[in-house]
Design goal:
By secondary structure, this protein is of the alpha+beta class. 35% of the residues lie in helices and 28% in strands. It folds into 3 domains: 230 residues, Bira Bifunctional Protein, Domain 2 (BirA Bifunctional Protein, domain 2), CATH 3.30.930.10; 101 residues, 3-Layer(aba) Sandwich (Rossmann fold); 70 residues, 2-Layer Sandwich (Translation Initiation Factor IF3). The strands form 7 sheets. It has an 11-stranded mixed β-sheet with strand order 3-9-10-16-13-12-11-24-27-23-22, sandwiched between helices. Helix 3 packs across helix 7. It starts with a helix and ends with a strand.
Amino acid sequence: MAKELKDLTKRAENYSQWYNDLVVKADLAEQSAVRGCMVIKPYGYAVWEKMQQQLDKMFKETGVQNAYFPLLIPKSFLSREAEHVKGFAKECAVVTHYRLKASEDGNSVEVDPAAKLEEELIIRPTSETIIWNTYKNWIHSWRDLPLMCNQWCNVMRWEMRTRPFLRTAEFLWQEGHTAHATREEAEEEARRMLKVYAEFAEKWMAVPVLQGVKSETERFAGALDTYTIEAMMQDGKALQSGTSHFLGQNFAKSFDVTYLNKENKPEYVWATSWGVSTRLIGALIMTHSDDNGLVLPPRLAPIQVVIIPISKGGEQLEAITNKLSPIISQLRDMGISVKYDDADNKRPGFKFADYELKGVPVRLVMGARDLEEGTIEVMRRDTLEKETRPVDGIVEYVSKLLEDIQDNIFEKARRYRDDHVYVCEDYEEFKQKVKNGGFFLCHWDGTEETEAQIKEETQATIRCVPFAYEQTPGVDMVSGKPAKYRVIIARSY
């Protein structure tokens, strides 16, 4: 067993440390020299690239186009939308000068006081303000609508407590920003993008999610409604995995974005914004992985199949390679990513443990006896089950196995989630049970006071009003007041 695997903390011992260990030991990311910022290593970035590729395709199928907007935002822009600046003020990183100069002794550099900016600039925490300032130059008539843009970029939010992928000062994401002629079109767009995120999470990430709408307190700063997908991690905590916001006309009015309607009268446009980030990699890790390392869904795994020959080298290795080469070619022709690891710098046992740690969905192994008997060993990462199969037909078998693994890890996660959703009517019972995780379906009276009390006393928050459950009136378990609907309450990341 590889040393990296031996040193991996067990989930049952310390779930948080298990996660941190796995991020580093599976070569996904590491801490950088900048506090709160991470280095995403090639293997981790390869996962993000596969996410990007699929999401980008799904966005464009709805009519969205990609663009790019500045990293730096004039400070005055943030003050134009009151709720927006209130929501992000404590997280903003500010650029005040544009030049350094060498110290007198030449051993260091310092800020040149003569190079102070006339207006300070904010490193984007999100791009609504700079984009809507731009949209006012792009939108003139109803013929210019809808305007639907997305950008792939980095953002900066000055987090005090960080954890790789889940919460970092700088992170990668996409942010979509759309403008529409009517309220109905904008609301429909916000809900459409939520469904895109939910489809991606379930079909590609194999992560079951609950769709719903946030409470007023939990909305995005400046939004009229925030829609969310909430996933449950293996410790029972919730992870907000994607949000889509109906912004109304707030930003259009702040930046004077109007269009001439068909009657040639000016109207403010209606807006949405929506985004997901590298936090999704954290969701992948915590939903599927185990004490042996990562378990990656085949559709997002950088390496879907690893093939390892076991030989004494020379002619024996050449013979095994010749036998395996057509299999490798056929798998690649089917769009399956394959790594053939014939390097002699590591023992087979180390390779096995390393690829298990990195979550490669399928491992194929061929030795001298397999070559002689026309067989090959197959191991699936999700269950760690091994079997020996004939080489004939192995390509078709592996292709089907990858789909089986994708379906199996989704169903496993779905069963876990469903088994940990509890209907709860008693607040004292809730306060005890929520400590062990889970989603609690509870009546809520709709007041901020009740919401704040739950958060203060239990560290749990209202995640959303879920769409998946039939809503019936009832009594709030905290206040005893009438409640129109049930909400999902959980502790979260």
